[in-house]
């Protein structure tokens, strides 16, 4: 999609993405199937849904370099590991515990972006990030690490957070030269193959599940994957990986509220207050990011080239 044809403020697609991914943990908890099977069919169904949209980009495949294919393959492996670790954590601990640890992702993304891309973040944006992470920590404070099983779930969630941060940074680099739909399709395809190999190696059955489980697989594909991950991959062309990671901090809020309504998992007053703090930190981070983008645009427009006095950062169209 051409950036100039998109006039909707960035907060709208980000909000849609946050709501969509908030349902992911609920669906995982509802299914009785192994997480590797859930993840495999989740991505497989997503691939089928994406075919009509990615077909027009098929000619790009013959123009990709060997290095790009290697990076796509690595990104797909990391995504598979993320789903395996994080979805596995939901079987061992609560939604609040798992999603709160997942919300630490901006820290790893920010460190990785600085090391890999020399991408700097303003002090005010970093402060907003700290505020949001503190609020997210309050959400899961009451039930993190209270037993051996919960600790195992916590560790899996942290591992899932690290690998998805690396996955996003690789994606940010690849999306500079690859259509977002093609990137998502290739990465999902690799992840499906990884899960298929994983299931066959461990003799995990890939058929024989209930109609309810198959319905959940489809919901996982449509809601958190298409309207969550695919949407965020597309947004990586418009905003930084750190911004997307910061937006995902809204997931613990939505997931915890849904867990109360649909899973009967209680939410304490501390967790409720923490949710409000998360949203406050998220709002100020997006505002600071918008201001930083505008400042960069102003610097660029002050130095016109070849008689062109209007040189804009395309991301300026995406206003928080």
What does this structure look like?
Helix 3 runs antiparallel to helix 9 and helix 6 runs antiparallel to helix 11. By secondary structure, this protein is an all-alpha fold. The N terminus and C terminus are likely disordered. The two termini are 19 Å apart. It has one domain. The longest helix has 33 residues. Helices cover 72% and strands 0% of the residues. It comes from Fictibacillus barbaricus. It is found in: Endomembrane system. Keywords: Membrane, Transmembrane, Transmembrane helix. This is Drug/metabolite transporter (DMT)-like permease.
Shape: globular
Radius of gyration: 20 Å
Number of domains: 1
Number of helices: 13
Taking the alpha carbons of the first and last residues, their distance comes to: 19 Å
Strand content: under 5%
Averaged pLDDT, please? Answer: 81
Largest sheet: none
Q: Uncertain segments of ≥5 residues (pLDDT<50)?
A: 1-5, 307-320
H and E order: HHHHHHHHHHHHH
Class by helix and strand content?
Answer: mainly alpha
Portion in helices: over 70%
Say how many strands there are: 0
Q: How would you summarize what this structure contains?
A:
It is built from 13 helices and no strands.
Core attributes:
disordered N terminus; mainly alpha; 13 helices; disordered C terminus
Write the layout of secondary structure elements.
Elements: H1 11-22, H2 24-30, H3 35-54, H4 66-90, H5 95-102, H6 105-117, H7 123-139, H8 148-174, H9 180-201, H10 211-235, H11 241-247, H12 250-263, H13 269-301
Helix pairs in contact: 1-10, 1-12, 2-10, 2-12, 3-9, 3-10, 4-8, 4-9, 5-8, 5-12, 6-8, 6-11, 7-13, 9-10
Organism: Fictibacillus barbaricus
Membrane topology: Multi-pass membrane protein
Domain EamA: 14-139, 153-286
């Amino acid at each position: 999609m051409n950036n100039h044809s998109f006039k909707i403020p960035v907060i709208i697609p980000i909000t849609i993405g946050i709501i969509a991914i908030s349902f992911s943990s609920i669906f995982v908890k509802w299914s009785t199937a192994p997480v590797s099977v859930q993840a495999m069919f989740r991505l497989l169904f997503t691939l089928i849904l994406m075919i009509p949209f990615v077909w027009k980009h098929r000619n790009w495949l013959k123009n990709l370099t060997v290095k790009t294919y290697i990076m796509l393959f690595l990104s797909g492996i990391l995504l598979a590991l993320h789903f395996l670790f994080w979805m596995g954590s939901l079987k061992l601990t609560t939604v609040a515990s798992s999603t709160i640890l997942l919300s630490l992702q901006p820290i790893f993304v920010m460190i990785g972006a600085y090391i890999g891309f020399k991408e700097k973040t303003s002090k005010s944006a970093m402060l907003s990030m700290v505020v949001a992470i503190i609020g997210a920590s309050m959400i899961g404070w009451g039930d993190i690490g209270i037993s051996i099983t919960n600790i195992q779930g916590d560790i899996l969630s942290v591992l899932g957070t690290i690998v998805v941060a690396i996955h996003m940074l690789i994606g940010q680099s690849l999306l500079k030269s690859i259509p977002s739909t093609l990137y998502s399709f290739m990465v999902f395809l690799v992840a499906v193959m990884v899960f298929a190999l994983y299931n066959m190696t461990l003799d995990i059955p890939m058929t024989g599940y209930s109609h309810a489980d198959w319905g959940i697989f489809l919901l996982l594909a449509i809601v958190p994957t298409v309207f969550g991950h695919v949407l965020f991959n597309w947004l990586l062309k418009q905003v930084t990986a750190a911004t997307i990671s910061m937006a995902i901090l809204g997931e613990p809020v939505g997931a915890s509220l849904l867990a109360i309504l649909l899973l009967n998992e209680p939410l304490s007053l501390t967790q409720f207050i923490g949710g409000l703090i998360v949203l406050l930190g998220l709002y100020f981070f997006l505002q600071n990011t918008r201001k930083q983008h505008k400042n960069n645009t102003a610097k660029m427009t002050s130095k016109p080239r070849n008689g062109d006095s209007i040189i804009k950062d395309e991301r300026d169209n995406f206003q928080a």
